[in-house]
Amino acid sequence: MGLEIPLWRALAVFRVASLAYAVLLMGRNFRTYPHPMIGWTVLAVMTAWTVAAIALYAWPAHRRWPLLLADFAVTAGCLLASVWVIGQDPLAHGSDTVPMAWIAAPVLAWGLALGRTRAAVAALAMGVVDAATRGAANTVVLNDVVLLLMSGMIFGHAARLAAVSEANLQRVAELEAANRERERIARGIHDSVLQVLTLVHRRGMELGGDAAELGRLAGEQEAALRSLVATDFTTVEGEADLRVLVNAYAGDAVSVAAPATPVVLPGGVAREVAAAVSSALDNVRAHAGPAARAFVLVEDEPDQVTVTVRDDGDGMAAGRLDEAAADGRLGVARSIRGRVRDVGGTVTLTSTPGDGTEVEIRIPRPRRKS
């Protein structure tokens, strides 16, 4: 990932710097070591592995278990070789090992590639190797383990933050691109569809009669379309404010009442609920009578969201929905009940002849992750 690249480069710099420090210590102390030639051999291995590790870790596909385990094994081997170079007695009394700070490199790599927890495991395992090298778990080993734990977990946490930040940036970039496309479409709609709907609305109201009803419907669709193209209702987390979607249906014959604060649902759920509300309003226009008005109420409760669509129209006789389903007319069954059922909700439909119809949609609120 792009934001992790600087961290891997920092690790590469650390490998080189810690190797240079190990060479400096060897150059200063090799005359006091029992077997300095083994020490120079260990440094040659460390140099070769530093070059190889930097080259291999530069490719994201290589940052997997085989390379990570090899990195740990080579480093642990160089650390254990300190016993033959320096002697265990000086090491037990706190002398520096041959690799010195270079042993932190695989722990940092584990943190970047595998996260904080596995970096902690690598740090503890390297501490065990350090204790075996010195022959005892003394204060020097304890200090080394603490430093390894802190550095590994910090690098792991930084890698996690980088991954999360990159994912958020990607999502923001996608939303920005979607908004630009949306603005382009909105301009096209404004220059064509909205102007036609405005003209139909105005001319229909002027002509009266059946044309007035056509004009009224055109006006409602114009208002709904303007609301949709003017509002971005999806959040970065993929959720949506149900109020915005439902408010798009407000018009001369439709009143919408919703809370003052956002009614947040997963984006897909919110769109399905809004589509079910649209179907209910279509039924009002088709069956409730020409003078019927519809009222939409959105209620945001702690454990559920309730949307009620009520009209003051002609209502329905008992058994009418069953007759419609038997005749193959499945608007309510599929467009309302089916949509709501698919997102885990329920629909209650109440109607009395001469007293309107009420459709109540209940959606359980999903638990938020803590």
β-strand amount: 5-15%
Largest sheet report: 5 strands, mixed
- N-to-C terminal Cα separation, in Å? 26 Å
Helix share of residues?
55-70%
What's the multimeric state? Answer: single chain
Whole-number count of domains: 2
**Strand sequence of the main sheet, in spatial order?**
2-4-5-7-6
| Net shape | elongated
| SSE series | HHHHHHHHHHEHEEHEEHHEE
Radius of gyration: 35 Å
Please identify the structural class as seen in this structure.
alpha+beta
E-strand count: 7
Q: Give the count of helical stretches.
A: 14
Uncertain runs with pLDDT below 50, 5 residues or more? none
What does the average pLDDT come to? 86
List keywords for this structure.
Heat Shock Protein 90, 2 domains, membrane, alpha+beta, single chain, five-stranded mixed β-sheet, 370 residues, two-stranded antiparallel sheet
What does this structure look like?
The protein is α+β, with helices and mostly antiparallel strands and 370 residues long. It has two domains: 2-168, no CATH class; 235-370, Histidine kinase-like ATPase, C-terminal domain (Heat Shock Protein 90). The chain is built from 14 helices and seven strands. It has helices at residues 5-29, 36-57, 65-80, 82-86, 88-92, 104-114, 116-134, 139-191, 193-207, 210-230, 242-247, 267-287, 320-326, 331-342; strands at residues 239-241, 254-257, 264-266, 294-300, 304-311, 346-351, 357-364. The strands form two sheets. The chain has a five-stranded mixed sheet. It has a two-stranded antiparallel sheet with strand order 1-3. Helix 1 (5-29) packs antiparallel against helix 2, helix 1 (5-29) packs antiparallel against helix 6 (104-114) and helix 3 packs antiparallel against helix 6 (104-114). It is elongated and about 110 Å long. The two termini are 26 Å apart.
